[in-house]
Design brief:
single chain; mainly alpha; two-stranded parallel sheet; about 65% helix; globular
Length: about 260
Amino acid sequence: MAPRISRAKKSIKAAGSRFAMPPEEERAERLRVVLQVLYLVFNEGYTASSGPDLQRVELTTEAIRLTRLLHQLLPDDDEVAGLLALMLLTDARRAARARPDGSLVPIDEQDRSLWHREPIEEGSALILRTLSHGPVGSYQLQAAIAAVHAEAPRAEDTDWPQILALYQLLERIAPNPMVTLNRAIAVAQVEGPQAGLDLLATLADDSRMTDNHRLDAVRAHLLERAGDLKAARVGYLKAARRTTSLPEQRYLAAKAAGLPQDGV
């Protein structure tokens, strides 16, 4: 990699290129791509897609550092601020997401006293300021959802109707199967597990979700809540086979093992 960077520097110097802000007509699209890359880097660090560790702290730390730098350069861009707020509010839960043995702890079972208050306060203040400016983007809405979770002292205190409303708005401005998946969770919390399962059914033929273990995992969770334990067990095992994250595999397999095979 080092020789490649060296060659690239020489090529740039030989071509007389300068590092400068792109023209106004190109800036929005370039910024959109930069934000997407930072978002993906953070997500990979927050929940590693494969391997023995649930989290890769070096990735989340670097993503936050770069996004904070971008916010300093573009303090009036609400989506940059929204992404930074989202990262801060999400990363604040890091210490509570895994047990000492590395096993995964879902948000409704986390010890919220382990959540870091400083980034929660910074992220919440940041998103409150940006939401007052006018039209909102997807990162701002995701940050707002994270802020609602962060302000609940206990899982049962979570304002799920507000989260559902935010997901409905997010799905309108940035339709995506993962948004629908998360909205199904919120729907289940507000209207019951069957309503969530009905919404999940709309994703069954979406090619983007064909091999996604999270669809199986969420469906299994809602089936368990609905009392269909046999189907829930099958779903947890299916999700465990599909994920390449060892902590997620162990968590999903444990959930399946905790359910009776005959569904009774």
